[in-house]
Specification:
- The structure is a single chain.
- It is built from 2 helices and 31 strands.
- The protein is mainly β.
- It has a domain at about 235-410: Single-stranded right-handed beta-helix, Pectin lyase-like (Pectate Lyase C-like, 3 Solenoid).
- The protein has a 31-stranded parallel beta sheet that branches.
- The relative contact order is 0.09.
Length: about 400
């Protein structure tokens, strides 16, 4: 749900406001983390009292490992060996003296006791060089608490803990690991720069509430590569203030698709620009590639320079959709007074099947039409028997070439 993601971002802003000043962007490294040849130490949580039996609370062992690692110079590696390590909330806050590596060979299990959590499960904040790698899992054990999620019923709901939160992290890599069954989002990036998520598997049932795969906001230079995501909400959601996003080789489904937005829910939201989604597959998702903004947007902002290319749909509903009248749970006013500008959007070589007749839906504002929309080689066909493939274009201006005749509505 877009408004909930926006609400969560506001909560993250509030959290950050009470912390120390953020690292200056101009001091960020141009490349990803590189710890070669810098020496350092290894901290094995099983040697610090952690028990991999899936029952014993190992929170203290992780806290001790972090304290030692963050104070050390060179490459500081925290090792989680094979086993199942149960923990409550884990807070890994820098700045640290050296580069931080989490080697996840075992599995972390998030406690199901919600009373332990003030906010999220695993929080990593104010770090300049971070690697999380391995073949282990972060298991939020969300199924035990999903019934406590009331966000589908009321706006001012209590947000359950997210699994992995990166705040003010520059130069990070997350690779190889799995995230399963979070209590809320699997992964959230806020005020991050130069982060790569690669070869990661994200899994939750299609009916699990608000289990977004990867959400980001106010971040830049984010790459999500060769990752498999199946969730109960957006596979990937790109929030306000984000720029320079590269998504490639992602398989999404089930889930609500790869989404930009929702945009305009809160005041002072910033532009979203320079987003590329290529070589992806969307399977049985409730949306394909989507841009959504509130009809009664509270912010003046622009979403621009998006490219969607070489995308395969496999019975995805709403394969291509721009929705400038987004209004979940009827919390907004349908007055058509949008303040969000959507322009320079390219859809190219998008093929496959749609589970709904409307393979293309460009639902733009009459007061602020979408402009610069380009559609090349769009060949998505409705997989049902009783209705023909169709497109709906409202207040969208641009060009269509090489598309199925039914889809050339620009």
């Amino acid at each position: 749900m877009g408004f909930l993601r926006a609400l969560f971002l506001v909560a993250m802003v509030c959290t950050a406001a009470h912390a120390k000043d953020a690292p200056k962007e101009e001091g960020a490294k141009a490349e990803g983390p590189s710890a070669a040849g810098r020496g350092g130490s290894t901290h094995d949580v099983s040697k610090l009292g952690g028990k991999g039996d899936g029952k014993t609370d190992s929170t203290k062992a992780f806290s001790e490992a972090w304290t030692a690692a963050c104070a050390g110079t060179g490459t500081q590696t925290i090792v989680i060996p094979k086993g199942d390590y149960l923990t409550g909330p884990l807070n890994f806050t820098g700045p640290c003296k050296g580069d931080i590596v989490f080697q996840l060979d075992g599995n972390l299990l998030g406690s199901t006791d919600l009373a332990l959590f003030k906010s999220n499960w695993i929080e990593m904040m104010r770090l300049e060089s971070l690697v999380i790698s391995g073949k282990g899992k972060l298991d939020g054990q969300g199924a035990a608490v999903w019934s406590k999620n009331s966000c589908a019923k009321k706006y001012d709901c209590k947000i359950l803990p997210n699994t992995l939160v990166l705040d003010f992290v520059n130069n990070g890599v997350v690779s190889g690991i799995s995230l399963v069954n979070p209590k809320f989002f699997h992964m959230n990036l806020f005020r991050c720069k130069n982060i790569t998520v690669k070869d990661v598997t994200i899994t939750a049932p299609g009916d699990s509430p608000n289990t977004d795969g990867i959400h980001m906001g106010d971040s830049s230079k984010i790459s999500i590569i060769d990752t498999v995501i199946g969730t109960g909400d957006d596979c990937i959601s790109i929030g306000p203030g984000t720029q320079g996003v590269n998504i490639s080789g992602v398989t999404c489904g089930p889930g609500h698709g790869i989404s930009v937005g929702s945009l305009g829910r809160y005041k002072d939201e910033k532009d979203v620009t320079d987003v590329t989604v290529k070589n992806c597959v969307l399977k049985n998702s409730t949306n394909g590639v989507r841009i959504k903004s509130y009809e009664d947007a509270a912010s003046v902002l622009t979403a621009s320079k998006f490219t969607y290319e070489n995308i395969k749909m496999e019975d995805a509903a709403n394969p291509i959709i721009i929705d400038m009248k987004y209004c979940p749970n009827k919390i907004c006013t349908a007055n058509g007074n949008s303040k969000v500008t959507i322009k320079d959007i390219t859809f190219k070589n998008i093929t496959g099947t749609s589970s709904t007749p409307e393979a293309v839906s460009l639902l733009c504002s009459d007061k602020l039409p979408c402009t610069g929309v380009t559609m090349n080689d769009i060949k998505v066909e409705y997989s049902g028997k009783d209705n023909k493939t169709m497109a709906v274009c409202k207040n969208a201006k641009g060009t269509a070439t090489g598309c199925l005749k039914e889809l050339s509505c620009l």
